[in-house]
Amino acid sequence: MYTTKTLLARRLRFLICFFILLPATLSINASGYADPPEFIRTNTIDLKRTQTKSNSKEYLFEINKGEQFYVDINIRLKSFQMQPSISLFAPASAQVTGSVVISGSDFTSATAVSFNGTPALSFTVNSSTQITAIVPYCATTGAISVVTPSGTAISSGSFTVLPDVTMSVGKTQICNGDGVLITATSSLNTSGTALNFDGAGQYVNVPSFNLNNDGRAITVEFWVNIPSTVTGNRTVFAATNTNSKIFHAMIPANNRKDLAWNYGNVLAAGRLSTDFTPYFNKWTHVALVSAGRLGSFKAIYINGVEVARDNGLSEGAITNGTTMLKIGDDVSSTIRTYFRGSLDEFRIWDKVRSPQEIQRDMHAIVPASTPNLITYWRFDEGSGTKISHISGTNLDGTLTAGSATGVPVWQASGAGLQPHISWSPAASLSSASGATVTASPSATTTYTATATYPNGCTRSIAQTISVSQTGTFTGTASSDWNDVANWCGGLPTAATDVIIPANAVNMPQVSTIANCRNLTIENGATLSLINGADLKVNGTFTPSGTFTHTDGTIAFTAAFGTQYIPSLIYHNLVISGKNAIKELQGDIEVTGNLVLTGSPLAFTFNLSRYNVLLRGDLTLGGSQSGTGFIILQNSAIRSINIFNNNLEHSINFEIDNPAGVQLNSDLILNGNLVFKSGIMSGNSIILNGNLTGEDITTHFKGKITKTLAISGPGTYSFDDMGLLFDNVGSGNWGKVTVSRYNGVPVQNPRDKNKESISRQWLISPEIPANTAVDLTFTWLSSDDNGKDFSTGEGQVWKSNDAGANWIPIEELKAITSNGNMRSIKVSTKSFSSWTISDINSPLPVTWLSFSGKNTHAGVLLEWQTATEENSSNFIVERATDGKEFKPVGEVASAGNSHHIRSYQFTDETAAKIPILYYRLKQHDYDGTYNYSKIITVPAPFRVVDFVQAYPNPCSRELHLRFQNPVAGAVKVELLDLNNQVRSSFLIKPDKKDQVLELPHLPQGIYLLRTTYSDQILVMKIIKQ
Which positions carry the signal peptide feature in this UniProt record (predicted)? Predict the structure, then answer.
């Protein structure tokens, strides 16, 4: 065919391997071959023809470059596989054994599919672009991979493996000693396949089976599904040794719908049977148990429940030896009772399994290592003629065909098996395996359930059970503290340590009486006091969680040691406990009342810096210490009550209550008293600290006392009590006690409009130094009591008899004002009661003294007055019994006087009796009057003693001894010091000694008055 024009042509043969599909035109690089023409190297070749050879194709190409040039190129084509790829998978998540469709390209020759590195249980290549894979046991979330000869494709996204094992716990918080059910549940059905026997000759032969237990205990378990149409006797299994048949079971049996079980004796007399009628046409678990010839009993369990038992059947003598086991046929060559139905999960144990063990494992795949498991066939091969044992040795079985029916048929099992569940730790569990166990831990424990799958892999899940000791609130029944069902170990007592856990079902509320020792509120927990609650804490209170106190009382009652009071907001708070120290851990607020009580009680502010903000009433008892403050703050009047007025209270008070504070008991205060707002009034205060902050609208109204040691020169300040003591004479006065009376003016009884200011001072030195002192008295303008100090002067008054009489000191003195404060200064050498008035408010007549004595002329009475106003005269009155006074004389008075006046009067008519009583009646010109004190004067003569009294002091009896027996009656009277007759006797002393019974009289001093004829004798008697 070629012309001469082709003489320049040469045939070139190239062996070229292509790994792409051959295109219509092909660029060929001929470099590397001998002398390739330039146009061959660079030009395009067009396909002209092909010639097929054995392993290649010969292509004829026309190379165009102005003229034809023919080249024969031998191209050997290798088979080509493209690199696989994964584009998507669906679903994106599934449990193990779930089906997943994988889409992509070039899957045709796939050799493996894996889920995060775990090979799929199985997979099917549907096409070059699709594979269906089964999620393997114990797969984990991650990428899916597909392997082909050309490479491996890995998904860009992760496949999520859904959990198939879950754990449920009856409750995660239990009391010590309680039990709780824990259940591990798998949603995975691992039943696999089963064998179906047609009853016409199909069975499984296990020729090397060897029981080798000499007739001891045995348990055989299997799952079975038998159609109700089956008739006759059908052998489920049978085994024999060299001597005889050793165990055997039939369903049906006895030519009726029975299950029959034999072990060691196949005779009817040794057979245990039960009706199987209810269990046909459904998958049923059967367990056949025998204690062997040593135990002599048989039992049948269906679905874990015992349905038949006989304790009197003889098992006979069984010898060991190689046996043969047939499943689905009798071992006898003459008796062929082929089984009809389905079987799965065939197990043999060399022990009597308990009902609990049977129920626990009937739905589980039992591990091959389980103790006492002789052999176990799962029937999960799914194809072929061999069944493999997963325990024991040499126990593989062979599927055997009947005369015309073939071998048993593989089918899906309906046994409903799940992975085997094992538990750890085994301690405190009712069982170490099984889906459900009972846990009874004594301490908080984490239990782990491990599921074992058919391929041996495992998956675990854990749950922690918190164990609470006595005193833990569970809240199982309600939030009521007093409901015993809510507590571990019963209702708490004063000796119980209480914990309120964060995981309690309900959070506790206290609405009645509650007690505990230590109290802990865990972080996340809440304790509420409501509706009149009364909670007593006898130990440590640790409120890591929330403490809500809207009503009722919490009391800290520890009797010894230090009890800490947390920094919280309380409603009513009681702090008590003999011999204990109570220490604040921070500032606290009490919205209700605060009671500090104990005998004694040391109440300490921690680090001397914490305060109590009190919005209710305060009750003080015991003693306190510290430099923190109790701040009384509210918009309503609050009160302070004291348990024991004689106890000192080392505490600081701040009064910040515009409505005022009422002091209902006398208070000895060693701390400071600070006023911010409001008036404190009521009983008296002995203040050993400082008084500050008083002003018109905020001060103490009542008696307040303070003591300073004063010796040597210097000015001593009694703070806001309004006294400056300038010891100009340098005298040693010892301890000087000043009592200030606010709101208590001195009143002129004859003119109610004439009073002093509403402030008095009582100054009492320990030592009468009688040296010069300058006193500066200061008072609030609100204490002026209507006095007119517009002239800038005032009068200082002094009383030496506790306010009965008042003496003006010096003349009118200048008053200094500083804001709301007024001051006045005087000099003195002695001390008593003091007050201030203006010039228009003189005080009433003041009695400086009144006394009497016997003289030869009669009873001389003397008296003095410090001041008199509008005084007319003095009437002298006398009484012989201290009650009935009669006038005995009159003395004219000075009228008006601001100087000391002296008076005297002699009672010449005084009766000759042992005691006389006198008083003065002072008349004014306006007809008003007042009395002096009453004085007594002994008789001016002595009567002859005619009786003696002994013993003196006396107790129950007083003896009277007369000088001589007297005729007639003697009147004997016992009077108290107020001249009141307490006992009276009328005796006839016919002998010298007389006895008076005195058990009814209390202890004290009495006057014995004896009257006989005109003689009266008075003597002092002491009754013990």
Answer: 1-30
> 600: burial class by Cβ within 10 Å (0-12, 13-18, 19+)?
middle
Q: CA-based angle 392:396:402, to the nearest 5?
A: 145
Q: Are residues 960 and 920 in the same domain?
A: no
Residue 995's CATH number? 2.60.40.3080
Q: How many Cα neighbours within 13 Å face the side chain of 969?
A: 6
Asked if residue 383 and residue 303 are part of one domain, the reply reads yes
How does strand 93-94 pair with strand 160-161? parallel
pLDDT of 598 reads 59
Give the type of residue at 889. G
In the predicted model, what is the mean pLDDT of residues 234-238?
Answer: 94
Q: Which of 918, 1015, 1018 is CA-nearest to residue 975? A: 1018
Backbone angles phi, psi at 552, to 5 degrees: 80, -165
DSSP 8-class letter at 621:
-
- Three-state SS for 721? helix
Distance CA 4, CA 490 (A): 122
CATH number at residue 891: 2.60.40.10
For residue 307, which amino acid is it?
V
Same domain? For 238 and 363 the reply is yes
Give DSSP secondary structure letters for 677-716: ES-EEES-EEESS-EE--BTTB-EESEEEEEEEEESSSEE
Residues 400 and 527 both lie in one domain: no
Could you list the beta-strand ranges (E) of 267-304. 272-275, 284-290, 298-302
How far is the C-alpha of 248 from the C-alpha of 239, rounded, in Å?
A: 7
Cα 895 from chain centroid (whole Å):
81
String of DSSP letters for 205-262: EETT----STT--EEEEEEEE--TT--S--EEEEEE-SSSEEEEEESSBTTBBEEEEE
* 3-class secondary structure, 542: strand
- Residue bearing tokens 């129920």: 359
Q: Convert the pLDDT of each residue in 99-117 to its tens digit.
A: 999 999 999 999 999 999 9
Higher per-residue pLDDT: 835 or 899:
835
